[in-house]
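I'll show an entry:

:::
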Amino acid sequence: DEIISKYNGHIKQSYNWGELKQNAGWKCLRLKYSTKLQEKNKILQILYKKKFFFVFIYIAGNIINDDLNSNRDLLNFLKKKYRRKILYVRYHNEDELDPKYCEILKRLGWKKPNFHKGQNSITKKNLSCEQELMKSYKQKWRYNLKKSYESNFKISIERKISSEEIFNLSRKHENLKKAKKSYLHYDYQIYPLLKYFKNDLIIGKVLLNNQIIALRIFILYNNIAWNYMNINETKGIELNTGYRLLHDLTNEFLKMGVKKIFLGDLNNKQFPGKYQFNTGYEKNVTETNGEFIYSNSKLATYFIEIILSSYLDVKKNIFSNFIPNLKI
């Protein structure tokens, strides 16, 4: 984490994120490598799963100090380590768009996938001062923010939260959506979150008659606030609580000296409501390098892409109605 912080690395490359994901069923491989010609160490955290003859690898966030030679070395290492397996590597680079870097990846055999979780764009807000904050919102977003002050709900910003508070609100969300006991509360991520990031959380709660009707959780890492989760019950949506909650959290980050806020991927086609909310909060959309895949089998890649695409459609159309909205 020391090297990651030094080079402004992504939270998904942090040690604690790897531990959290291991609780979700992934295995974690951490690499540090360099050559005589390379002055800077390359570090990387890989998540992987093995199934029969397949090895599924996910590289999230970014690769610290990556370039042509080191990426080639990485691919050679993976091909050698799993030489008797069908290899499928998915790399989601959330750094700002760098056409030269994308061209390097393509030269080495990386390809753009047929399906994407997002649109290769994210909501990222650079924080400067409170006076500039209102100007950074779109007019409609400012209107909804001011409108929300007509309601009598209260905002509480805290550093701790219990798993029961999260689960109770998500259960209310399920009941309102008429889910049949889906129990999809992401227990496997909430408990590790409270374990590995317990000192790095900022929680915004919306209270009405002493009851939580909405909440949003951020993880503070590397002087950046990373949006992890938000949950709303119907009353929270009706009262436009999200606007004042995010505004108050942003003001809190300013006081703490936080430099940036990441709200996550944008996808106007599948999640237009989230897209409108996020792009109203921050007018300037940040284009990223996006997702790439690498495989030693074209046939396997073809079928895996179909399966993953179908899975995401099911998840979007069914599961997303019943479970908390995880952003990272």
